From TrEMBL:
This is Terminal nucleotidyltransferase 4B isoform X3. One of its GO terms (biological process) is cell division. It comes from the Eukaryota. Residues 340-434 are annotated as: Disordered. Residues 1-119 form the Poly(A) RNA polymerase mitochondrial-like central palm domain. The chain holds residues 219 to 652 of 652 of the full protein. Residues 382-415 have a biased composition (Polar residues). GO terms for molecular function: ATP binding; guanylyltransferase activity; metal ion binding; mRNA binding; poly(A) RNA polymerase activity. Keywords: Magnesium, Metal-binding. GO terms for cellular component: cytoplasm; nucleolus; TRAMP complex. Residues 348-374 have a biased composition (Low complexity). Residues 178-238 form the PAP-associated domain. The keyword Magnesium applies. It comes from Balaenoptera acutorostrata.
Length: 434
């Protein structure tokens, strides 16, 4: 789910196409990115949020809409102008990539919010991982859109920040922390313990909970705090969660996730039926085939053709690093090569002394084998792509393909099978994704 370099490249091309149309209309206009693409917390299907700054008496929504249609930047039926919304925007879908884009005018809050999010992600390195999983969790349940009563990205982020502020763990500010435990505890808090009726969320000044009764005293015209009251740290008096009328559905979904994950990592989980058929995280999150196919298409269009061929180990398994980088990985290749050369020369001399003329056959065969191995593997160490070993299509040294069926009956020493691990309460996210 984490963004890939080729996905960022594709999205920047979409931004550049739209920006070129805007600059053609208004050369002095300033186009800025905000939202999840700006912060890096976007899913493969997330929108791109753009804001255009300029001087107009009336917002030029229809002018830009006409120009986008004229340049065929967007699908004909996808361009929509929402001029009656609280924040007027243009919505469109890029004609080539199918990426959805929202364009607003002269709105500062989005850019400021992106800067705030970046500051908190520096303080809490776990935040990006936690938020991406939560966004995917809500997306597949249609609970991620504010206009349908769900929780938007900004609200979700503020909830995650409040969780880390008020339920501190020593490892929350440390990279490579135990993400799995934090995820389960997040679901436990907002699915079971948080009092939505009486309590609001505030992240300013180190974070705190606020009583809704006290908040209502300062609200004008008899307004009441929403079910999911989240104080906007950038705009005093703004309730970020006021439009999330489906907050109780979100609460139920979080409670469900807590129950499922808690059972999955309990000591008796190994006795559950079909325990090994799916990953732990896969019990609450699914990535559809359509999304997987879309990401593969992006990789082919923007990734592979501009990337040097990856180094392989002769079995079709991509190495973790390219051969040029292996010296930096403390593999001591030069010393190994020198030692191997001496060893081979001594072996050849020894064989020639003890084998007379008939030794030419075996020695030639051995030499050919070494040469073939060198051609295929080079002088690099070989890396497996996973702890369970490579089990897909295998490439031989002659470039031919051998399927798993062709390997049946052969020695199992070609494959490495890791030991089954017992699930513990403090299961890291890497275990949840196994």
């Amino acid at each position: 789910m984490s963004p890939r370099p080729e996905e960022e490249k594709m999205r920047m091309e979409v931004v550049n196409r739209i920006e070129s149309v805007i600059k053609e209309l208004w050369p002095s206009a300033d186009v800025q990115i905000f939202g999840s693409f700006k912060t890096g917390l976007y899913l493969p299907t997330s929108d791109i949020d753009l804001v255009v700054f300029g001087k107009w008496e009336n917002l030029p929504l229809w002018t830009l809409e006409e120009a986008l249609r004229k340049h065929k930047v967007a699908d004909e039926d996808s361009v929509k102008v929402l001029d009656k919304a609280t924040v007027p925007i243009i919505k469109l879908t890029d004609s080539f990539t199918e990426v959805k884009v929202d364009i607003s005018f002269n709105v500062q809050n989005g850019v400021r919010a992106a800067d705030l999010i970046k500051d908190f992600t520096k303080k809490y390195p776990v935040l990006p991982y936690l938020v991406l999983v939560l966004k995917q969790f809500l997306l597949q349940r249609d609970l991620n859109e504010v206009f349908t009563g769900g929780i938007g990205s900004y609200s979700l982020f503020l909830m995650a920040v409040s969780f880390l502020q008020l339920h501190p763990r020593e490892d929350a500010c440390i990279p490579n922390t135990n993400y799995g435990v934090l995820l389960i505890e997040f679901f436990e808090l907002y699915g079971r313990h948080f009092n939505y009726l009486k309590t609001g969320i505030r992240i300013k000044d180190g974070g705190s909970y606020v009583a809704k009764d006290e908040v209502q005293k300062n609200m004008l015209d008899g307004y009441r705090p929403s079910m999911l009251y989240i104080e906007d740290p950038l705009q005093p008096g703004n309730d970020v969660g006021r439009s999330s009328y489906g907050a109780m559905q979100v609460k139920q979904a979080f409670d469900y996730a807590y129950v499922v994950l808690s059972h999955a990592v309990s000591p008796i989980a190994k006795y559950y039926p079909n325990n090994e058929t799916e990953s732990i995280l896969g019990r609450i999150i699914r990535v559809t085939d359509e999304v997987a196919t879309y990401r593969d298409w992006i990789s082919k269009q923007w990734g592979l053709q501009n990337r040097p061929e990856p180094s392989c180990n002769g079995n079709g398994v991509t190495l973790i690093v390219d051969t040029q980088q292996l010296d930096k990985c403390n593999n001591n290749l030069s010393e190994e090569n020198e030692a191997l050369g001496k060893c081979r020369s001594k072996t050849s001399e020894s064989v020639s002394k003890h084998s007379s003329n008939s030794s030419s056959g075996p020695v030639s065969s051995s030499s050919a084998t070494q040469s073939s191995s060198s051609d295929v593997h080079g002088s690099t160490r070989l890396f497996r792509s996973s702890s369970k070993g490579f089990q897909g299509t295998t490439q031989t040294s002659h470039g031919s393909l051998m399927t798993n069926k062709q390997h049946q009956g052969k020695s199992n020493n070609q494959y490495y099978h890791g030991k089954k691990r017992k699930h513990k309460r403090d299961a890291p996210l890497s275990d949840l994704c196994r």
